[in-house]
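ingest -> validate -> predict -> emit
validate: passed (alphabet ok, no gaps, 476 aa)
predict: started
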Amino acid sequence: MKAHLYCLILLCLFTKATRAQIGFGGTPHPSAAIDVPSTTKAAYLPRMSSAQRIAIVNPQVGAIVFDLDKTTLYLYDGQNWLPMATTSANALAPVSRTASDGMSGDGMGVLGDSFGQSVSIWGDYALIGAPQDVVNGQLSQGSAYVFVRIGRAWTQQAKLLASDGSGGNAFGSSVSLSGDYAFIGTGVNSAYVFFRNGTAWNQQQKLTSSANSGFGQSVSISGDYALVGAFYETVGENSHQGSAYIFMRSGTTWTQQAKLVSNDGYIDDAFGSRVALSGDYALIGAPQNDANSATNTNQGAAYVFSRNVFVGSGNTWSQQAKLTASEGSPNDQFGWGVALSGSYAVVGSVFNDLGANTDQGAAYVFSRSGTSWTQLVKLTAFDGSTDDHFGGSVSIGGDYIIVGATGADGDGYINQGACYVYQRSGINWVQVRRVDDNSPPNTRNGSSVGMSNGTFVIGGPGFQLGKGKVSFGVVE
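emit:
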């Protein structure tokens, strides 16, 4: 009897296999590979922990499991495990991209490129720096990649190189986008402007400054104006006080309009380490400034400059405010990250201590009323820990702020990195999301961030031993 039953089962399986269909409890629908009709029973997919899911060897596209730790279904898309079911739009996972996507330029994202060390986003375009990229055998010549969003997908459109690039230039150390213009800084006192015509990006001009000033390691562009930090520049007798330069475009030519220095600058302030530009306002970080007290070594500050546009003013720029943390302490390095949009400024304080958590980090939001700037709120991560370095990168776009925490651990992985998104509610900013993924240790997601009207990009330059990656996502 058992032998007959065994043969019957084999016959059934063979019959189903020849039709490439399996039906339980009835004949399968012609369009179905597997059809399980039921009104009283459930179907169960493989169930496992996050660690077990991540440990699956060579998963194939379309693999599906239920993650017991995340309490949701995950789908493997060929590169990443993506959550299929979420409790809200804010839980949607970002999509990762590397320099090899799109096969533009050499299409060779390799170990050590540091792709994602710098990022910027403007509408449907994103600019990604890879300052350690090897170009034609030249070590660390550097490059930058343009990605464009078509529908819901981000694809690589172009790879940008300096026309006179050479080894050690670190082109892509800093990047910024505004409209059809891309602004890319280097590690050797220069910055380059590119202009988009259709799908082509062409170099328009190279901007330079004096040697050994750090010019180009931070850049920002807004409309017809560009801002370049020179954090290492000596000002008067003050070595490494730092400065910043404003350039203005007329036609296809960019001309220096102003040199900005703080009115209370001192030795080693590193003014210009980070810069942001929005309309007629510039925000410049000086993370090693002593914040009005000799005892507050490296507490840090950020300076707001405004452009005087009245007739006869000559479009001059003048310091409007010095921003400091209301409860700052020595070595907080307030000003490590800066962002500016309209009447709001965001300043990161990457080594800020919170309770027993050394160097957890924080970020501060300021608002402008007339010519006055007021601290609104101090942002911290709800699950922050020691050495998270929250605030090392910040960006603001519309009603959203994103803050990077490169040292945050996730999924048991040290220095995986994470980012936190905040939404404006009146005068308050409320955390609405933590963004992380299943990146390996030392990916350092959040080393750079960009936000544009609810769409964000996150750089993880440590991914795969420095090959680097970026992640695109939407808040809602």
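Confidence is low (pLDDT under 50) at residues 1-19, 86-91, 101-107.
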